[in-house]
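Supplementary Methods S3. Input chains for the assembly prediction are listed below.
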Amino acid sequence: MRRSWKDPAWRAEFRNGARELLPVAPGILAWGLVTGVAMVKSGLSVPLALLMSLLVYAGSAQLAALPLIAASAPAWIIAVTALATNMRFVIYGAATRRWLTQYSTRRRSLLGYISGDFSFVLFMNRLEKEGAFAHRDAWLFGVCVMNWLIWQVASIAGIVGGAFIPTNWGLQFAGTLALLPLVMPSVRSWAGAAGALAAGSVSMAANAWPYKSGLLAGVVVGITVATVVDSFTNSVGAEARP
Amino acid sequence: MNNVATSDVLLAIVSLVLATFITRAGMLLVGDRLSLSRHVEAALRFAPACALTALVLPEVLGPAGVLDLSLGNARWPAALASAAFLLWRNNVLGGIAVGMGTYTVLVVLAR
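Predicted structure tokens for the full assembly:
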């Protein structure tokens, strides 16, 4: 890692990645703040909430675990809940895996550990445009480190100021809005749009399922629908060609 | 949570760290031991679009858990306004501002 950092081209890509994330910063700030406030409002002490934020760094899993911790649930139930809530990251890992195989185990561990929804979508969008670009580990690190910093600042602010921050002011909606511009380029193809529509509908209909399993079901159905539509539109296109 | 022992919370944090590490880094670490078919690899390029809509749509169309397309749910008109702005000007901050502005106006009007 130290050797990479000495390479100016590597550092430049790291900076590019960090800059790439800045436009969605308000969304990350909003989500981080909401999660920080929720941690202290659930009764977690400030030091433990800080520790959880810094080490776990997984908003939806933390929110799912809070009521279980408050009810003194056994650790294995908390672990299973977090695994289920985080299941979408396994799909992200499967999708990005082949672009990162050349890097060391340590580097892949770290990249995986600090990755999230934003870094995944931004990384896939750039790969779609440019293919296997040079120093993609640096670029991804830049995105992830910036995301981590913004999230922690907001989460810590929420933990420290939690008692003074009202929870019912639609703040987390800003986080949702920050995701919109990331969706829009990927739904320009028929297959992408059909898959997204299916994924969203299933996720909405199965919203009440436990452990965010409705979200996972939506992603799986969406990918399947997109693939079917893609093979259909592609084969139609091929036949239409002279 | 004052009645929950600190050691129990620490154990919970360790469980959360492990579960998060396994799900996020696991696939990157299995390396060549797992080979996905070309079909699966090709299908996974649709994962970003599907994951994001699966995250966003329930938040917008049914923040209370069930589908709510009445004006009592200010989120869907706000998201629509934000998306329209994004199509017009590709400006992320502007999109968030337009969305939150619409949302706030609708919430205040509903009072």
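Chain A touches chain B through 97 residues (CB under 8 Å). Chain A has two domains: 2-183, 187-237.
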